[in-house]
Amino acid sequence: MKLKGVTLLAIVTAATFSVLPIGQAFCQDSVAGQEMHTSGQDLKSAATETGESAKHAYRGTVDQMSDATLTTKVKSTLMSNDQTRKYSIHVESNSGNVTIDGTVGSRANAKYVGSVVAAVSGVRNVDNKLTWPTS
């Protein structure tokens, strides 16, 4: 009797599995696999974007440090020069382009200050906005 029960159970189990839509179970795994793959790609993309943002921030910081360093070099040069230290000259730097602004004694002084600034290592261009009394 037990043998008939086990055989009957095996037949019912086989019939049940042959009727159930097993293909859908594999489809669900496939959809889940696709979602995991998509999530992995999204994560990889986010990591790449984060890396690019970090590079951009680094470059921006280096540029700012370079500008600040150049401004300091120009100001130090002007302060160490006997002919330029007496003037209050504002200096700004942007990627090697230096702008000088302030008041000097004459047009010749303005040209001289511009030439001193142009001689500083790292200066690519000087925008000389120095003024002098006209009377």
Counting DSSP H or I runs of 4 or more residues, the number of helices is 3
CATH class: Alpha Beta
> Unreliable segments (pLDDT under 50, ≥5 consecutive)?
none
Ends apart, CA distance between termini: 128 Å
Radius of gyration: 38 Å
Overall spatial form? rod-shaped
Overall pLDDT confidence:
79
Give the tally of structural domains: 1
Strand arrangement in the largest pleated sheet = 1-2-3
Give, in order, the helices and strands. Answer: HHEEHE
Largest sheet properties: 3 strands, mixed
Q: What are the SSEs and their pairings?
A:
Layout: H1 2-19, H2 22-80, E1 89-94, E2 97-103, H3 107-118, E3 125-131
Parallel strand pairs: 2-3
Antiparallel strand pairs: 1-2
Describe the overall structure.
By secondary structure, this protein is of the alpha+beta class. The chain has a single domain (31-131), classed as GMP Synthetase, Chain A, domain 3, CATH 3.30.300. Helix content is 66%, strand content 15%. The protein contains three helices and three strands; from the N terminus they run ααββαβ. It has helices at 2-19, 22-80, 107-118; strands spanning 89-94, 97-103, 125-131. The chain has a three-stranded mixed beta sheet. The mean pLDDT is 79.
